[in-house]
Amino acid sequence: MKISACYIVKNEEKNLTRSLKSLYKAVDEIIIVDTGSTDNTIQIAKKYGAKVYACKWQDDFSAPRNFALAKASGGWIIFLDGDEYFSVETAHNLRGVIQKYDKSGRQGCLLIHRYDIDVDNSYEVLADTLMVRIFYNNPHYRYEGIIHEELLENGRPITELYVIKPEELKLIHTGYSASMSKEKAERNLRLLLKELMITDNPGRLYMYLADAYLGLGDREKAKYYAQKDIAQGRRATTYASRSYRILLQLSLEEGESLSDRLKLCRNAVHDFPENPEFRADLAECLAALEDYAQAATEMELALANYHNYKGIEPMLFTAEQAALAQQRMQGWRQKMSTNLDLVKIAELLRMLLLPLLLMDDDEYNQASNEYESVLPKGFYKVLQRYHGDKVLLQDDCAREYLDILDMLILRKNTDAMEKLLASSGDFSAAVRKKIVERLDKKIAQEEFSQEEVLC
Q: Whole-angstrom Cα distance, residue 33 to residue 326?
């Protein structure tokens, strides 16, 4: 069995030694295609016995990659970027892992866990992604796309994929450090827009365009391309969930309503049911809407996915997040227990309040004195204002006001809701904000539109 290591490089003197050192003992030849280095990259490559070929850069990443494939004589190929290297604790397994698949006759692609780290921020792990970095030297395998190029078989996605456990082989990638992100995003966007003008498959680029625009701070275009990407349905790529991540990030940063975020979370879980982050996001959204039973169920599924993850999508759910998720789930279940104890009391109060709300103003006012001693003070004051009393509502009865609003939303009594909301201007700005948030929560929970509430 012969193994070829392939690279395309340009000015990688800071990274290449570490990368070559991690694999040169396990391979039989090293093919390096240089696209115009002006530093010591070529000298470093030759020090490790590499065959170095010059290839003029033409704004196309696939061209030099395919050039390298044409020069490789090994039965198996390891194709790394200059800023990737096998971890110290797994590099010695490299040849043995490939040999195992070669002897078994499984001649496809090996998916390796790659950890993107930020060297500018204490080597923080930014992502854990499965990448095709080792594959059988199949003449029908070729890279396509001028950027974010993909290895395809006769122009179609490769189906023979094998996931390698991270304890067997692990890649480290330093190329997405904070100091390099903007520069890469600008370059990527330029090439993506160039390819968009000529490609027959623009859908392949939407997620990458969304990512590039996000990196450059253009939220609207990032959102536009992310939405176009998810509208295509799930695709067979390890970055397929990235567009949902972008939309969820923007949803939080821009303060979208809970009803909109709930819909987005449900769609993400539908398309990527194995993803623990999306289920955890959905759980938090449901908890914010006070649906603690469903929130606990979704968080339990998120934790199950975390502990038994089998997908090829990047998983950003950490051990710390899993521990916090466990605490959150337990807290919601405690609230469920407490709520059950209060159900009968709350129902009795609703039985008393609803007829009073449905009375006409004259009927209520004739008998209102009888209710003052029966009703809690806050509820009595809200009812007085609701039925035409000119008394102003203060923030100390905001809780009772919101409880009555919840009850009317539950019964979809839009006339009564409009009448109640007419007095919302009495409250402070902080309470009015809570009223709007409560509307968003309950409308999403009860699944009828805001137009039905506020015509």
A: 49
> What is the C-alpha separation between 300 and 219, in angstroms, rounded?
33
Query: Do 339 and 366 fall into the same domain?
Result: no
Per-residue pLDDT at 337: 66
Using alpha carbons, select from 432, 407, 412 the residue that is nearest to residue 422: 432
- What is the average per-residue pLDDT within 385-411? 87
Whether 235 maps to a domain, the answer reads: no
pLDDT confidence of residue 237? 72
Q: Where are the alpha helices (DSSP H) in 7-151?
A: 16-21, 41-47, 62-71, 94-103
Tokens representing residue 288 in the block: 């914010």
Token duo for residue 231:
């509208």
What is the amino acid identity at position 284? E
How many angstroms from the chain centroid is the CA of residue 297? 20
Tally of domains within the chain: 3
Report d(CA 180, CA 435) in Å as an integer. 44
* Average pLDDT of the residues in 16-32: 97
Mark whether 32 and 141 lie in a shared domain.
yes
Q: Domain with 82 in it: what CATH number?
A: 3.90.550.10
How is residue 34 annotated by DSSP?
E
Asked if residue 181 has pLDDT above 80, the reply is: no
Average pLDDT across the chain, whole number:
88
Residue 338's region, left for phi above 0, alpha for psi from -120 to 50, else beta, is alpha
Q: Is residue 175 part of a domain?
A: no
What are the Cα distances from residue 364, in Å, to 143, 386, 403, 409, 439?
Answer: 77, 10, 20, 22, 26
3-state secondary structure of 166: coil
What tokens appear for 298 in the block?
Answer: 């979704």
Query: Which residues share a beta bridge with 29?
Result: 4
Tokens of 353: 């309040």
Distance CA 282, CA 293 (A): 13
pLDDT at 453: 44
CA gap 114, 170 in Å, rounded: 6
The region of weakest confidence among 144-158, 271-285, 394-408 is 394-408
Taking the CA atoms of residue 306, residue 312, residue 316 and residue 319 in that order, the dihedral angle to the nearest 10 degrees is 30
Q: Write down the pTM of the prediction.
A: 0.66
User: How many residues in the chain?
Assistant: 455
Query: Same domain for 313 and 447?
Result: no
H helix or E strand, kind and range, residue 163: strand 161-163
172: tokens are 């480290």
Domain region containing 327:
269-346
Report CA 97 to chain centroid distance, whole Å: 31
